[in-house]
Amino acid sequence: MASTPRSSSSVGNRKPAQPIIRLRFKCENMQRIGAFKARGAFHAIERLKQEPGWLENDGKRKGVVGFSAGNHAQALALAAKENGITAHIVMPSTTRPYKIDATKGYGANVVVCGPKDREAVAAQIVNETGARLIPPFNHPDVILGQATVGLEMQDQVQNLDAIIAPCSGGGLLSGVALSCEGTGVKVFGAEPEFEGADDGRRGYYSGNRVTEVNTRTIADGLIGVVGQMPWEIIYERRLVSGMFAVSEVEILEATKLILERLKVVVEPAAAVPLAVALFNEEFRSLVEKEAGEKGWDLGLVLSGGNVGVEGLAKLFS
């Protein structure tokens, strides 16, 4: 897909940037459970099995605990099932029913709780069962699992200049950043801006990690604050070169473009990197300045495709 210059009126009557961008898509919507989260969950389970004494001390029966409103829940449930491990998954009552059903379908013991109680309930289950907590992003083995996205992109695309990954808790973005450290490949984060959903961007440029956000963005897969461990990689180690945010209209337009042009199904959160590449004038100006006439080969992570038919219909109604 080619980069399309924007009109002067859409950028405040300034001359719009016209960078040369060649887009490469990493389709994690085609991953198992429909999202990149499978990578982190399977890697964390594999490392747990290798931990001295875990199997011998009845680790499989005690199981693992996760808390998630979506893709991590399904990923951990599947990874546990395929390894014969009990899975306890805590999901808030606001979770979409089809996601709860999918998690149960993988054999997990699903515990539904209040919207803000998931971590407390997960801790209680750990105390009662002796299960091991595997959180959705604030865990080294989960981050390293997500890092394989960046490793594969570098292997599959020669002379890749940069990668944009969506950012919520920061597990994917920090993992991709780790995979690109020292390679010359720049890594950028993408977020929705609606109602302060761009907590990662605001924290990155203020120097203070945002610890609370309340938003109803259509990119609901990106609702959440950056965890402490990803933050250390993203900001403190400066492995991410910049953070950018886009509007709801731009996310919707990017989602529509992916559906109609790429012929693949993605959730709105997955379309945010494309929205940045096409519509964020700050990012486009950066590419124009740094790449010049050569342009950039830009990798975009389509993070997931877990959206129902009714949800898609509602988006475009």
TrEMBL record:
Cofactor(s) this protein cannot do without: pyridoxal 5'-phosphate
InterPro entries: TrpB-like_PALP, TrpB-like_PALP_sf
Coiled-coil stretches: none
SUPFAM superfamilies for this protein: Tryptophan synthase beta subunit-like PLP-dependent enzymes (SSF53686)
Any one GO MF annotation of this record: magnesium ion binding
Entry-linked Gene3D superfamilies: 3.40.50.1100
Domain Tryptophan synthase beta chain-like PALP as annotated: residue spans: 22-278
Recorded superkingdom: Eukaryota
Keyword terms of this UniProt record: Lyase, Pyridoxal phosphate
Family the entry assigns: Belongs to the serine/threonine dehydratase family.
PANTHER family: SERINE / THREONINE RACEMASE FAMILY MEMBER, SERINE RACEMASE
Entry protein name: Tryptophan synthase beta chain-like PALP domain-containing protein
